[in-house]
Amino acid sequence: xxxxxxxxxxxxxxxxxxxxxxxxxxxxxxxxxxxxxxxxxxxxxxxxxxxxxxxxxxxxxxxxxxxxxxxxxxxxxxxxxxxxxxxxxxxxxxxxxxxxxxxxxxxxxxxxxxxxxxxxxxxxxxxxxxxxxxxxxx
Length: 138
Description:
Structural class: alpha/beta
Largest sheet: 6 strands, mixed
Oligomer: single chain
Low-confidence stretches: none
Radius of gyration: 14 Å
Strand order of the largest sheet: 2-1-3-4-5-6
Order of helices and strands: EEEEHHEHEHH
């Protein structure tokens, strides 16, 4: 379990532009399955929509690898293409099938803000709906 307000970052995220925007919480590279672990029970998978269009099976394998290992799993999607309707439907379906929450970010900065907010807020079991409401109200 990471220390409070510390994000564990998978080695596969080296070079991800989101990392240079994380300034309000500590983060460290670790040997973890999800891309980011916040607190003791929240896993975040980061996916670029552009990458998903090139490798559509990738996210399914990643969701399966993380499934059931954490109380809250978030699929953080960087929307970096113009045509989004069909891919978003696919990813929404995949996230729901894996009991994950899909959160869309339209820039690396916004993606970073989601990660830091989650790291600063401890979540307990069955808080997916609260998480979504909280992000839209803040």
